[in-house]
Amino acid sequence: MLGRRGAASLTRVNPAVIWETETMVTPAGSSPQPRPLAQWQAARAPLGVLTDIDDTLTRDGVIEPAARQALQRLARAQVPVLAITGRPMGWSEPFVRDGTLPAIVAENGAVALFRQGAELRIEYAQDDATRHANAQRLRQVAQRVLHEVPGTTLSRDSAGRVTDIAVDHNEFAHLDAPTIERVLAIMRGAGMQATVSSIHINGWFGDHSKLSGARWIVQRLFGRALDAELGRWVYVGDSTNDQEMFGHFPLSVGVANLLRFAAELTVWPAYLTQGERGAGFAEVAAAVIAARARESA
Length: 297
What we know:
Number of domains: 2
Distance between the termini: 42 Å
Shape: globular
CATH superfamily of the largest domain: HAD superfamily/HAD-like
Strand order of the largest sheet: 1-14-13-12-2-5-6-7-8
Number of helices: 8
Helix content: 25-40%
Strand content: 15-25%
C-alpha cells in the first residue's frame, strides 16, 4: 500500500466552484469548457471505458471503494475497462493478476498487461534491443536530474519500471512548479518525451504515449481500430498528462479533482463529474451502464 502524498505542487482550484456558477471561464487559448456529466449526450452506448488510475480510481495509491464497486458493476454489465497509466509494469501487475482490471497499459503506452485465460501476458511496444539500448540512457538522465535539480528523488515505484523514469513531485515528495519545469527541461533536452501526472514527472525514449497505448490494447484484445469508433469509447482522467486523450475522445470525462490543475490545462475534457476520484468514476460507470440499458431496451 502506498502512503499519503505531500502537499500539491500545481495550482489548485476548489472543485465546488464550478457547480456554484452557471458557467466556468477557461483560460484564453483553452479548449471549450467541460459540461456536467449529467448533460452527457452519446448517439450510441459506449463500447468500453479507458481510464487513468492515479487520482481517477485511487486516493493515496489505493483504489477507492466507490471505484472498486463501479469496476465490478461494469464487469457485470460486460463493459470492458482498460487502464492507461504512467505507473510502472511492476506496480500494475497485481491489479491484473487479481482481476481488479482486465488490462493495463503501463508506462505511458510502453507495456501492456492482460489476462489470456489463466495466464498473465506482458507485451512491449518496443523490441528487446531498443529497450536494452534505452536502459543506459534512462539511467544517465535520471542521474543528471538528481545531480542538477536539488530536492529531486526518483519515485518509490521505480524498481518496477522497465521503459521510463519517474521523478516524484507529489506522492511522497513535494516539488514546486519551477522545479518541475527544470526536470522537464532536462528530460526533453535529452530527447525524451516527458509529462506530468498528478504525482510523478515521467520521461521516456520513444514515440509511444497514452493514446498509442489505447489504440494498441483495443486492437490487441478486441481486433478493433480505436480511431474508427472514437465516439463509442469513454476516456476518464484527472490531470495534465491526460490532455492528449481529452482532446482525442468526444466522450472524455474529467473527475472533479481535475479542477485542481485548471491553471495548467489547455485541453479540457468534454464532461466533468461532480465527485472526485473514485466517486467521479462511479458517476461515469453509472452513465455508461444506463446508456447500455437504454440501447438494449
